[in-house]
Amino acid sequence: MCTNPTNTETDSPTSEPLGRAAGCLDPATPLEELVRRATELTAEHFTPPGGSGWRMLLYAPLYLSSHCVNHCAYCGFRAPEAIQRKHLSVDEALRQADILQDRGFEHLLLVAGDFPRLTTTEYFVEIIRSLVERGVRPAVEIAPQTAGSYAEMAAAGACGVTLYQETYNEQLYTLYHPRGSKTSYQWRLEGLRRAAGAGIGRLGLGVLLGLADPREDLLALLRHGDDLQSALPGRTVAFSLPRIHEAPAGFETPYPIDDETFVRLYCTLRIVFPRAELVLSTRESVVLRNRLAKICITQLSAGSSTVPGGYEDGSAQSHATSPAVGVAGQFPVTDDRSAAEMAEWLCKAGFSIAWNTPAE
Ligand code: SF4
Question: Which one of 69, 74, 78 would you pick to mutate in the ligand 1 pocket, going by the greatest count of ligand atoms within 8 A of its CB?
């Protein structure tokens, strides 16, 4: 059972890594100092032998379904939104995967809303198994599952589970998740431990920046990561800090995060977890993604679409809204460089590009 990471007094962290985090988050610590240290640590731990730049994994999200029973206040897929929705059949999902494989991707993140009648364990397992047969290493970003369900996905070849807590402030969590299966804070909190116990090797944690005090949420996130690593050594831990840029009408981001704070938070993650994968999505701008890639990021999505069915044959670009059916995306993509354009930039910047995760 996971303890709630917010139960420890956030202003007086007890462990040495958390003490380090508190120092990094102190505005009196110059950002340049953190950037320098984070860059050194990333280079030290992620540069392949004989390489000059560190390894950058490129991946793509594959949105399977925009149907969702939940009412998350900040999400474009929330049940009350009057949007055109789509649930891909297994064949449609595999067709999307073919397009992404043609663009070079071998690591795909399967993303879906929570709609139990359609997003069943059998559905995910069939897609995972078929992708593995095609040479893809899939991970899932879906609703928290039972241990049995995770075990079936692991047996089918799922290499990772991404499950963001959104915020570790339980009171605010309750406010933002008023209805649906996601109302249970504890079930979500314990999801990654169930996944790891069921044989999943890569664990993706994160908070949705903008929902709560970023310093408190980051410290709680670090505690959660520390807790998982101590209890389940040998797993790969990955952190991501998605930031709210656009939300459904009526939702005002209560804790907007500026770019400098955003960079500070990522540097803190690197300094406290030198070997963790740090992930950055296409929500952020080209300028900021390029900047952070050179400091601490080790996994970038590219050429992304947040629409089920948003990847089109014969086009390098992806769509914010599927042109064929008018299906809506979960959030707007800001960096719309194609996979090839992203790879070209990384090459010129001296990175060593990987299209798949290493086998655990
Ligand atoms: S964040 Fe996830 S669970 Fe919540 S409404 Fe959006 S798709 Fe559904």
Answer: 78
